[in-house]
Amino acid sequence: xxxxxxxxxxxxxxxxxxxxxxxxxxxxxxxxxxxxxxxxxxxxxxxxxxxxxxxxxxxxxxxxxxxxxxxxxxxxxxxxxxxxxxxxxxxxxxxxxxxxxxxxxxxxxxxxxxxxxxxxxxxxxxxxxxxxxxxxxxxxxxxxxxxxxxxxxxxxxxxxxxxxxxxxxxxxxxxxxxxxxxxxxxxxxxxxxxxxxxxxxxxxxxxxxxxxxxx
Length: 215
Prior knowledge:
Layout: E1 2-8, E2 13-19, E3 25-32, E4 40-46, E5 49-55, E6 63-74, E7 82-92, E8 95-96, E9 102-107, E10 111-113, E11 126-127, E12 139-145, E13 149-157, E14 162-172, E15 175-181, E16 194-202, E17 205-213
Antiparallel strand pairs: 1-6, 2-5, 2-7, 3-6, 4-5, 7-8, 7-9, 9-10, 11-12, 12-15, 13-14, 13-16, 16-17
């Protein structure tokens, strides 16, 4: 589950508190991106609550960015339709922010983030614009499947040369999905700045969108 900051500016501290059902989701880890490397970050987890506090003299990179990621695993015995992760508390630069509660919904074995959290099964295939865009160094690609499909998602440079395969002919059930790209190729090497294409093939559905990597 990515922790996203939308159009942030001069953010030098933040506090976050997430709640989830520990009988359904098992907390694995929280990791942080380079955008918050100038902050000292403390995080803790206990009984379905994740608390994060961060502060420093250097501001977080401005714009719409991924601050970090929280990883969960679902218990094998969960057989309900969905469960949610909720942002219970949010504070930036010593000021409390308005929050709308649910930030992630677990539906049919996947985490659905932000505005995708309405649940249900999509009616059509769709490939969304990556977020953030432009990005550096990580971006999120979201897509939806109205039925179980064999999915391939690939990255190409502007000349049409293959750069990275993010999803390789993988059978996925219907739902709202996401995949992250960290601006590396299939060998794990960083790629150069510029425009890239990302392509999805799911059943007979195929779509292509553009994204820009900045460094």
